[in-house]
Design a protein that fits this description.
The chain is an alpha+beta fold. The protein contains two helices and six strands. It has one domain. Helices cover 19% and strands 39% of the residues. The strands form two sheets. The chain has a four-stranded antiparallel β-sheet.
Length: 99
Amino acid sequence: MATLSKLKADQVLFTVTRSKMGNTTISTTTVHPVRVVSVHDGYVIASWNGNKERKYYEGDVAKWRVCEPVLIRSRLTARLATKAEIAEMKAKQQKTNHP
């Protein structure tokens, strides 16, 4: 999670939200980038998902993530990966990089 005091201009953070898929009861997890334009006392100017820049206050910034979340996709939906799944992915990646 991000804190206002540690943010820098041109830093990219991420938001995680749950949303419905059209006119159904099926929901999925979505990840959107947030680009910080400038940091001020008590707020930041940022662009969420490529939209117009606006003010975000400390409560909004606290929900942002510094590292991009890993999603596990199924046929219709996506969910956040567990710590065990992330560790397994990293182990597989290291095996393929080092023969």
